[in-house]
Amino acid sequence: MARYTITFLPSGRSASVPAGTTILEAAAASDLSLHSPCGGQGRCGKCAVQVTSGADEVKPPERRVFSEEELAEGWRLACQARVAGAAEAFVPDSSLMVEHHIAVDGIEREIVVEPNVRKVALRLAPPDVDDPRADLNRVMDALGRDVRAPRPLHLLQELPGVLRGSGYQVTAVIAGGALAGLEAGDTSAEAYGAAIDIGTTTVVTYLCHLPTGEVAAVASELNPQSQYGEDVISRLQMAVSEPDGAARLRAAVVEIVNELIARAAREAGVPVSSVYEIAVVGNTCMTHLLLGVPPTGLAAVPFVPVFRGAQTVPAAALGIEVNPEAPVFVAPNIGSFVGADTVGVILASEIDRAEGLVVAVDIGTNGEIVVARNGELRACSTAAGPAFEGARISCGMRAAAGAIDEVSIGDDVGYHVLGEVAPQGLCGSGLVDAVAELVRVGVVTETGRLLKAEEAASAPEKVRRRLVQNEDGIQFVLASAQESSSGRPIALTARDIRQAQLAKGAIAAGIALMLAEVGAEPEDIDRLLLAGAFGNYIRRESAVGIGLIPALAGDRIESVGNAAGVGARLVLLSVAERRRAEEIARRVEHVELSEREGFYDRFVDAMMLRPLPAGS
Ligand code: FES
User: Fold this and answer.
1) Which of 47, 63, 230 most suits a substitution to test ligand 1, by most atoms within 8 Å of the C-beta?
2) Which terminus of the chain is less hemmed in, N or C, by CB atoms within 10 Å?
3) Burial class (CB in 10 A: 0-12, 13-18, 19+), 458
4) How many CA atoms lie within 13 A of 73 on its CB side?
5) Which of 22, 46, 49, 227 has most ligand 1 atoms within 8 Å of CB, for mutation?
6) Is the pLDDT of residue 104 over 60?
7) C-beta 38 within 6 A of ligand 1
8) Cα of 62 to ligand 1 centre, how many Å?
9) pLDDT digits (tens, 9 = 90+) for 289-331
């Protein structure tokens, strides 16, 4: 088959690809990640590129997204256009995935550092006629009876060389109570572990010094699986319906895990061979995919995972490039859609030990809600959809430089842009702000209807003038074409508001139903914890204003950052926390919301954009 070179501008990157390759795939081959939240279905329009030569004919989805004029200028959807000759494509910033802000601090917890992997420096006496013990016995005697003999054959094979080559001064690597490696000299301080939080949207890696528990470096990146679909459902569909779907998803996550470990190790100035253990949290689908376990049962009713408990496998078997002996501990799941990341949130926040009624909400593409009442734990997940992560919103983007993250309305619209640059789109916290403010000034009704300028009589004049009608319907312009970096206005459509309502409704209904499970009302909540990046950036008054979360007096609402990531660090650094994680996963009652009576009514009710009534 003929191959052609495609060059991407302005970066100048290029790739040689077979004829018929989509421009999206060719971009990936050139190390360019384009937005593709619809998974390349031609629906979202986020993968727009301008092709000057070498593409095949325009497809129907492209005619729906672009005007005749834009098509004449060469605008194409990268997921639909295929390479048909030597090609050149201009990639606008708005189509490129960019680095984004990720909550990495989380809450700090005091723990006794007692990792599963430890190192012990030994000074051994060489053998002589009075002490002719076997080499292995010599090492094991020095380690004491708590340490079991090794299994790997290569350790026995390397043992004589390491002992004699080092003058009998060695360091034993002990994993899970068994001798796992022997190194020449005293390397006891060179012991690191990686705690990894694999989210649907982002992957965060904490490189930790195992003897002290200190974080040596943090690296984070978008989960590259996003190019195959923004949410868990679309990835599950890919995994079960495409012959190599699960393998490609697994390869994508393994690649980013390797890259993040290497990046963090470089930053800390240590070789990746000094990483002796990995601990992973993630939702149930993510952990199945990482382990190469087909998530088939998760894709259809009755939604059955292959495993629930913790798994420990060799890093080498997963293709993770660290010390060859390193184990990977994957924290346990709670249920099909409530995973090890939620266990991490519970571990980190200790709500399993808290008195009173504590609710933890991790707002992501899947919203996870945990209700703890005096140690009794229940958890559910709600399919909030990716609106709060900036997807399925016409001007949506993730919380990255260029994202409007705050909106306020007085006489006119004011906003804040992350990175203090020209605005490019709207992220989740900006969306919640914008919707809350538009409801407050009477431009959007409580039922979510975006009014026409003449209907929004109570809104200030300058605000009303931002309501424009075009062939797609009414829009509210937050930033004009002149203000935005793309030269296109940043505007909210009626459909965008609907998406925000659906996401808000799913989470608010989830909280209400979980409270009903324990016979409680919103005002009974002693503490409401907001976890995840969105929980960190969101303005509480806006979230309360549209009824996303209940209004609680005093300081009962707390942001706890990336609590799941803190949980990953806890299970990396402490075998006791590891046991606790397993106990928590067993103890939590998994609530399947859709099976609860009144689910649909609650959901419809929760779509209203107004503060939750007291006692709802
Ligand atoms: S339209 Fe191309 S990825 Fe969505």
Assistant:
1) 47
2) N
3) exposed
4) 10
5) 46
6) no
7) yes
8) 9
9) 999 999 999 988 888 999 999 999 999 999 999 998 899 999 9
